Amino acid sequence: MCLVILDDYSQYGTTLPTKKYTAIYEYGDDGLWKVHIKEIRGVHTQGRNIAQARRRVREALSLFVDDADTAELVDDLRLGPDLRGALRKMVSARRAAARLCSSCERSAAIQWRGNQLPPAERVV
Fold first, then answer.
1. pLDDT digit string, tens, across residues 106-115
2. Which CATH architecture has domain 18-78?
3. Is the full-model pTM beyond 0.70?
């Protein structure tokens, strides 16, 4: 029996499935995003933001595997309690601002219909 291993499957119209790696991001006390690959010990880096950390982790992964450029990275963001609390406050404030803005727009529309001129064009 003879076993033939082909290096290039593209000539047969098939490609090998891309490998999937889990990139775990954690926000550090120093303001940097630390990231490591769950499946491969030793692949880790950091960046000022998530985009930079993602580019760098792919570069670090290329030192360990040959398919780093085509590999699928699954992002797993892990926020600490401080960052989660700040995020909750921001979302709450944004919702309150949207409700306030919505009620101001309704009020302005009612005034505008009553005076037949937009509020900015009224002469007092």
1. 666 656 555 5
2. 2-Layer Sandwich (3.30)
3. no
